[in-house]
Amino acid sequence: MKQAHSTLFTILRLLTLAAALATSAVYADDYSDVSQLLRAGKLSEAMIKADSYLSTKPTDPQMRFLKGVIQRNLGKPADAIATFTKLTEDYPELPEPYNNLAVLYAGQNQFDKARAALEMAIRTNPSYATAHENLGDVYARLASQAYNNALQLDGTNATVPPKLALIRQLFGPDRQAPPPAVVAPSSSPSSAPVPAPIASPLKKP
């Protein structure tokens, strides 16, 4: 009797594990489907699928992150900012939403907000290389603004124009940003996502 009970318990555990793995596979398929639609430029379809998923799992960070990327690519920066801001509030330990906020803020020339967001990204993950690079770009943009202000106040200052020229060379039209990245599906639907950042470097629209 004892052995029968133990066997039954083992079977139940295996069934539970199988169900969990099946659920994880379903979630991964959903993430993958939305990511593929996003990469293919089928943004409206991707948004419909993301919204459908979130209607039953509204707190899922992975799909919410994908939705923010879709909104950004649809040319809806205000909506994307709202999505990523809420993600930073609900999951402050994730650096990627902060990075994406910074890219969006920089696209609106709000470099102080971009800097603050990137500093938060680095604080949560000091080894996040993309955030460090983007922060360097933001500092360069802020330096450009400061140099322009210096020239307006003192147009005879001969040391400022070469510095401005250097920054303009860094952000010239020949510098290309990588394409927007999408989130890689998480191995577990309950775990924190490992989303990839929106394209960098930070460039004016």
Can you give a write-up of this model?
It is a single chain. This protein has 205 residues and is mainly α. It has one domain: Tetratricopeptide repeat domain (Serine Threonine Protein Phosphatase 5, Tetratricopeptide repeat). The chain is 69% helix and 0% strand. The chain contains eight helices and no strands. Helix 3 packs antiparallel against helix 4, helix 6 runs antiparallel to helix 7 and helix 7 runs antiparallel to helix 8. The C terminus is likely disordered.
Please tag this protein with its features:
205 residues
Radius of gyration: 22 Å
End-to-end C-alpha gap:
73 Å
Count of helix runs: 8
What CATH calls the topology is Serine Threonine Protein Phosphatase 5, Tetratricopeptide repeat
Number of domains: 1
Share of residues in helices: 55-70%
Derived from helix and strand composition plus strand pairing, the structural class reads mainly alpha
Itemize the secondary structure elements and their pairings:
Blueprint: H1 2-39, H2 43-56, H3 61-73, H4 77-90, H5 96-107, H6 111-124, H7 129-153, H8 160-170
